[in-house]
Amino acid sequence: RKEVEQDPGPFNVPEGATVAFNCTYSNSASQSFFWYRQDCRKEPKLLMSVYSSGNEDGRFTAQLNRASQYISLLIRDSKLSDSATYLCVVTPRGEYGNKLVFGAGTILRVKS
Amino acid sequence: NAGVTQTPKFQVLKTGQSMTLQCAQDMNHEYMSWYRQDPGMGLRLIHYSVGAGITDQGEVPNGYNVSRSTTEDFPLRLLSAAPSQTSVYFCASSYSYNSPLHFGNGTRLTVT
Description:
The structure holds two protein chains of two kinds. Chain A is built from no helices and eleven strands. By secondary structure, chain A is an all-beta fold. In chain A, a hairpin with a 4-residue loop joins β7 (60-65) and β8 (70-75). The termini of chain A are far apart. In chain A, 37% of the residues are buried. Chain B is mainly β. Chain B has strands spanning 4-7, 10-13, 19-25, 31-38, 42-51, 54-57, 64-66, 76-78, 87-94, 102-103, 107-111. In chain B, the strands form two sheets. In chain B, strands 2, 4, 5, 6, 9, 10 and 11 form a seven-stranded mixed beta sheet that branches. Chain B has a four-stranded antiparallel beta sheet with strand order 1-3-8-7, with no helix packed on it. In chain B, β4 and β5 form a beta hairpin. Chain A binds chain B through residues 4, 8, 31-32, 34, 36, 41-46, 49, 87, 89, 91, 93-98, 100, 102-105, and chain B through 31, 33, 35, 40-45, 48, 50, 56-59, 90, 97-98, 100-101, 103-106.
């Protein structure tokens, strides 16, 4: 089983739709969680950190479920510009390097 | 703000050639790392550094060397290029072990 798993998609949604992605992780010691966005042939960029209490940034909401070991990203009112690959990143407490694990990404395509 | 600067952006090598990918950051980050990204596999860690003079191996270190003589620079050396090293390479830096990563623009390497 991969340490971090994501549904690769693609998720094809119309503008204005609400879409949600999940990312599951296998290491229960994981402490830090992030969502990154990667546009085609570009570098990943931080979208948002994921906090235990959940957090929201405009149309984006991130949730953490430690009991079931997954994080989620909800995008409301999708825009064409949201089309990208969304990567989840998991980091166990106190470690760097080997334990910084990326998911393979979920592709989102928003269509008019 | 330059952030993380990678050079070159594109490179074509013949099997057996060596080269160095350059990475520099101006954010005074202690943590720097190199990743490769291949289709369907996400980003995989090659080598990382937690400060000047300190480096360690990541998930896929074979065929690559690194050094960290200054806080700013973290070059990646390909010792003898192989077709399996055809990939997109990203350098990243972060403030601490659980801080978000800042990525360079990437180097697209083809080994023939």
